[in-house]
Specification:
By secondary structure, the protein is α/β, with parallel strands linked by helices. The chain is built from six helices and ten strands, in the order βαβαββαβαβαβββαβ. Strands 2-1-3-6-4-5 form a six-stranded mixed sheet, sandwiched between helices. Strands 7-8-9-10 form a four-stranded antiparallel sheet, with no helix packed on it.
């Protein structure tokens, strides 16, 4: 059984929120959380485990709480989303100045096609970049003091940026990307796949009706289907070992 990759999401949480040129006087905290709503949904559809910072916390308390949560959880990636100000017209991903972090930020750079300019920038001063045990990718998605870009973000850009970010994360963490609305491809059972029984039936033979009730973890012995069942063993180090009679615990229906 594949363990889901873990991503921690940290939307902007300014103690004094930033005004923007966006429709309806939408603030930076507000539209970054809206963007994360879209991204979180897509990541879960793609099979990621997602933890997200509490939007009710702001400022230093928010950052410290989020970093602590992510480190305790053992996230594979920590992702921050803010929007920028100062008159520019580009997108930027900041990261710790080492080759591994730059490589990961480079994946966002490769997929960020919905805006004309994207930069990867080293940063060793921002708290979330400095204090996370895992790589932190810190996005400044666009400049929220440009009315045209704000209108684009709220019209379609939020969805486009989220989709491109999801693609980048799939590439980084070895997860199969699929288009929105498409079902995951079910892979064929393989030797060693974990099967968890909760008061489930462990059959004595491939085709007979006799079974015992078991709770616990078993592992596909060889991934070969006989009738409607698969052989299992009770320890991963026994997968495929012979003699069969010594190592096979029984049969399960998947």
């Amino acid at each position: 059984m594949t363990v889901a990759k873990k991503i921690y999401l940290s939307p902007a949480a300014h103690a004094v929120d930033n005004a923007t040129a966006c429709p309806g006087n939408c603030s930076e905290n507000t539209h970054c959380n809206a963007y994360m709503d879209v991204l979180e949904k897509r990541l879960k559809e793609l099979g990621f485990a997602v933890m997200r910072g509490d939007a009710s916390l702001t400022g230093e308390k928010a950052m410290k709480t989020r970093v602590t949560e992510a480190n305790r959880w053992g996230a594979d990636l920590y992702y921050v989303a803010h929007t920028n100000a100062g008159g520019g017209r580009y997108s930027m991903t900041m990261c710790w100045p080492n080759p591994d972090s730059r490589m990961k930020a480079g994946a966002i750079h490769r997929y960020r096609q919905c805006l004309p300019t994207h930069k990867v920038v080293d940063n060793s001063t921002l708290y979330e970049i400095r204090q996370t045990a895992m790589t932190c990718l810190y996005d400044e998605l666009f400049f929220h003091d440009n009315a045209a870009d704000c209108a684009w973000f709220h019209r379609e850009g939020m969805q486009k940026l989220a989709e491109e970010t999801a693609q980048a994360f799939c590439t980084l963490l070895g997860v199969t990307y699929r288009l929105p609305g498409t079902a995951p491809v079910k892979t064929a059972p393989r030797a060693g796949d974990k099967v968890t029984l909760q008061k489930g039936r462990l059959y004595l033979t491939a085709r007979g009706s006799a079974y015992v009730t078991r709770t616990g973890s078993f592992y596909l012995y060889d991934g070969i289907k006989v009738g409607n069942r698969y052989r299992v063993t009770n320890r991963p180090d026994r997968v495929g070992k012979t003699p069969v009679a010594l190592y096979v615990s029984g049969w399960v229906t998947l």
